Every structure is written in C-alpha cells, then in structure tokens.
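Hey all, quick one. A colleague (J.T.) asked me to put the pantoate job into the tracker so the inputs and the structure tokens live in one place instead of scattered across chat threads. No bug as far as I know, just bookkeeping. Sequence used:
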Amino acid sequence: MEIISNISEMKQWRDKGERIAFVPTMGGLHQGHLSLIDLAKKNADKVVVSIFVNPTQFAEHEDFGTYPRTMDADLVALEVSQTDLVFTPNVYDIYPDNAVLNQDEFTQDKGLFETLCGKTRPHFFYGVLQVVRRLFEIIHPDVAVFGQKDYQQLHIIKHFTSGVKIIGAPIVREHDGLAMSTRNQYLNADEHKIASKLHKILKQIEQGELELQSARERLQRYFELDYLELLDANTLKKITDNTSKIAILSAVYLNKVRLIDNIIFSKDNYV
Ligand code: PAF
C-alpha cells in the first residue's frame, strides 16, 4: 500500500491509466468505511482512500478540534483491507488560497442544501461539496463510493459533481442496529443503548407500526429531535403520486452527540 501526501505525486500516480475507485474519508475508520472499500474494489482496478478532516464542513462550535484522528490505526485497517493507495493531503494543499465554494451556483437548489441536516448545519453540504470536488480534481477517479447513512450528502454529491460515477453503499450497523459512525466513539455504554432506539423507531415507521407524529414523540423521549421526515427518496421533497422510493430520514442529539440514520424502501411496500 502506498501513502502519498503530495498533490503532484498523487497526480503522477493517477496517470497510470488504471480504473480508479475512490473512497473519501475523514479517518476514524470503522467497519462501515471498510465496506465502502470492498464495494470500491468490485468496481475498479485500484482503490484510493483519502484521509482528510475537512475544516470547511465544520461550523465553529462543532467538533473539528476533537474529531477522532486515528491515523496509525486507520493505516493498519487500510493495509488489511488491501487498499492500493492512501492520500493524506494537508489543508494548505487542498485549499491553497483559502477559497470558499461560490454558493451562487446553487441559488436555485438552495433548498436542498438548507433542508434536513442543512437546517442546523447550513455550512455543511457546501463544505462537503467543496472538498469532494477538489479531491475529484486531484485524483480523477472513475468511481467514488459514499455511505448511504449520509443520505442527503450522497444525494447532493450525485447532483452536483460530474464525470465520476457515484455509488451509494448500504448502511453498516452495530449488533443492536445503531448505524456505524466515527462519532459513535463519543457515546458511553448507556448512551449507546439509547442511541440504538433511533433505528428501532425508524423501523417501526417503515413497518407501518408508528405514524410520523407518534414517532417524533417517541424519539423525543430519548433524544433532542432535530428532524424526522418521510420524503421522496429520489428528490428529498414531498411524497407524490410519482414517488417510487420513500426515505425515512432523521437526525437527533443525544447529550450533544449528533446521530443520523435513514431507511429507504419501495413505496409499494408502504402500508
Ligand atoms: O462522509 C464523510 O466522511 C465526509 O463528509 C467526506 C465525504 C469524506 C467529505 O469530507
């Protein structure tokens, strides 16, 4: 496994002409990330993983400073998972002139950036898109794999990047159903148990056992509710007669730890 930090070296490596699948990460790797790498391998000759904690997707009051940085363990996990190359750029090379994303391009689609997670984290998707586009520009992958846990992120990346095939990978869950996330490290054992209720409640909605409003009330027993919505999975807008897939999407806080989860299912199966 090669490790490259330098952008021109990265570009040179890329010139070899193989089909590249790319998995962008912020490190703090867990089984969920490793499942993205497995999927990437099936779609290309070589797999490139980046590790870069992207400052532009954190607001000032968020956890950029304390976000888990576990480079040594990450590199071991990547070696075991037979990653071909790890790209570990520094912030000055990613943002040489401190450029921020020009949001004018998205005026028409502002709604998509500022709904759901974007309501409480208005900076977030602009920051994600900025770094993903920059990484694509450096790595020129054929394919990139993103987790479906961040469903709105996946949706925005599919819509606002071009030239790279975007693949969404299924959510990987802990034994109790909690969606795997680097931020799960912030939870103690009791909190972890409570956190697993999020998925259980979403499941009850999917199975027609809980109406949306009752589910919101149920979530509020355990969490500070950010949102719980039932939307068209293809547009992230209201369900209509043309909806084929439904997305149940939620974000909650448990003692300041933000948890997100979703279930996507066919409208035909909705009772
Ligand atoms: O999902 C993540 O880990 C990040 O948002 C990403 C896509 C690596 C961009 O920093």
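Adding what we noticed when we looked at it: The mean pLDDT is 96. The CA atoms of residues 55 and 64 lie 7 Å apart.
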